[in-house]
Design brief:
It is a single chain. This protein is globular. It is built from five helices and no strands. Helix 1 packs across helix 5 and helix 2 packs across helix 5. Helix content is 54%, strand content 0%. About 6% of the residues have low confidence. It is mainly α. Bound molecules: heme C (HEC). The site of heme C has 17 residues, from helix 2 and helix 4.
Length: 106
């Protein structure tokens, strides 16, 4: 299961690299590091994580939403959000985290 996810992740990152979109410059591995540092207190950010806040959607669930796009998540992260602390993420950090979340999409 984990291997399959890893392969999917590589494929998505490779595809994003070719498409030349906003997400293309994003680094999903850096996003994973940032997510573990800033988001894991509330969100389940990867399949190894066992605990987070009960009413906060795991990243894997966010990634599955039909209207999910890395661009939307990146924009969402740059704007302050009432229920989330203001992170002061840079544009590129937001794009990296968005790339990481989109890599969780199955
Ligand atoms: C203090 C707890 C907390 C932290 C830390 C936190 N979040 Fe959230 N996040 C929430 C809550 C609560 C919601 C649900 C908000 C809602 O339903 O309006 C949410 C929602 C979201 C959503 C939108 C999900 C949707 O329904 O579309 C995204 C994307 C998201 N968070 C990403 C992140 C990222 C990336 C980080 C780290 C940079 C982060 N969050 C850190 C509490 C948190």
């Amino acid at each position: 299961m984990r291997t399959v996810l890893a392969v999917i992740r590589i494929l998505i990152v490779a595809t994003a690299g070719l498409s030349g979109s906003l997400a293309a410059a994003a680094d999903a591995d850096r996003g994973a590091t940032l997510a573990k540092r800033w988001c894991a207190t509330c969100h389940v950010v990867d399949s190894d994580q066992k605990q987070a806040s009960a009413d906060v959607p795991p990243f894997a669930v966010i990634a599955q939403k039909p209207d999910f796009t890395p661009e939307k998540v990146a924009t969402f992260l740059i704007e302050p959000h009432p229920k989330m602390p203001n992170f002061q993420l840079s544009r590129s950090e937001a794009a990296d985290i968005a790339a990481y979340i989109s890599a969780l999409r199955k």
